[in-house]
């Protein structure tokens, strides 16, 4: 049975228009995402991955300058908590003689204009990213698939909504697989239809929207962002004239219905920040 769902994703994948250079071997260690823009007080989780895009273990993490952010190691991932505004923060991962960095800009609260790239991942060397596809929602699966066209075939990469890579796989023949889908709108609003059919998302303007979604966006689900604090999320809900009872507000999952959509907001019980959101159409 055909399916359709809509998500709001604040991200940027580099999509060059030039021909692919000869494909190169991915580096043995990469930080994912490798670039991020954060506001003071926000948190973002990063991971170190290998050539296959899968998480590396026994990673050592460092941050410079140390006063700009605090890092908390959670198993094989690290969460960065922005403390002070800084134009250039370097998050470094080291493992078994390999090292890699992520470049992070920390801005003052409120300094996130429309069009700001809140995270990005670099294409595989010698490839160019050409398509993003929403994944079918699953318990611990990816939120997005990214297709890269390489000189020796196609690369598919699986990512979470906040830019952490889960895996990458190369296919021998070039060109898009028949069952890949494409984004139905540019900018921050991305919806997917199967079999490559594309269309604008309902109730959204035909004009491209910025990569960052402001708190006054039409839909509350579009306005609430991953890594947003619980208080900021509640403030956003209130600004959209939606009421949450005290019990639901304190829970780790909010279910919100608005204008034919159902939005599920999930919080991390320890950091009290948004870790995932899902927006689906409500049908009668």
Can you characterise this structure?
The protein is mainly beta and 284 residues long. It is 7% helix and 40% strand. It has helices at 220-223, 230-239, 246-250, and strands spanning 5-8, 12-13, 30-32, 35-39, 43-49, 60-64, 69-74, 77-82, 86-95, 98-107, 119-121, 127-134, 144-150, 153-159, 165-171, 189-192, 253-258, 261-267, 274-281. The strands form five sheets. It has a six-stranded mixed beta sheet, with no helix packed on it. It has a four-stranded antiparallel beta sheet with strand order 3-5-8-7, with no helix packed on it. Strands 12-13-14-15 form a four-stranded antiparallel beta sheet, with no helix packed on it. Strand 7 and strand 8 (77-82) form a beta hairpin. The longest helix is centred in the C-terminal third of the chain and has 10 residues, at 230-239. The protein starts with a strand and ends with a strand. The model is unreliable at 1-21 and 173-217 (pLDDT under 50).
């Amino acid at each position: 049975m055909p399916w359709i769902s809509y998500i709001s994703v604040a991200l940027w994948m580099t999509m060059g228009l030039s021909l692919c250079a000869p494909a190169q071997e991915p580096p043995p260690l990469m930080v994912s995402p490798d670039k991020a823009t954060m506001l003071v007080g926000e948190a973002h989780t990063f991971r170190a991955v290998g050539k296959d895009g899968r998480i590396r273990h026994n990673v050592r993490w460092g941050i410079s300058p140390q006063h700009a952010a605090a890092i908390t190691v959670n198993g094989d991932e690290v969460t960065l908590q922005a403390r002070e505004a800084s134009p250039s923060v370097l998050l470094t991962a080291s493992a078994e003689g390999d090292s890699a960095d992520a470049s992070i800009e920390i801005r003052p609260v409120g300094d996130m204009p429309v069009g700001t790239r809140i995270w990005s991942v670099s294409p595989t060397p010698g490839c160019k990213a050409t398509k993003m596809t929403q994944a079918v929602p699953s318990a611990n699966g990816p939120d997005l698939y990214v297709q890269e066209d390489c000189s020796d075939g196609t690369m598919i990469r699986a990512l979470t909504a906040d830019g952490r890579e889960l895996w990458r796989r190369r296919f021998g023949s070039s060109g898009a697989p028949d069952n890949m889908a494409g984004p139905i709108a540019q900018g921050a609003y991305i919806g997917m239809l199967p079999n490559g059919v594309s269309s604008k998302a309902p109730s959204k303007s035909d004009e491209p929207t910025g990569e960052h979604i402001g708190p006054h966006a039409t839909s509350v689900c579009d306005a609430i962002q991953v890594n947003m604090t619980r208080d900021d999320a509640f403030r956003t809900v209130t600004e959209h004239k939606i009421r949450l009872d005290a019990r639901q507000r304190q829970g780790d999952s909010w279910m919100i219905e608005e204008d034919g959509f159902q939005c599920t907001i999930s919080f991390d019980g320890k950091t009290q920040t948004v870790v995932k959101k899902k927006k689906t159409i409500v049908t009668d």
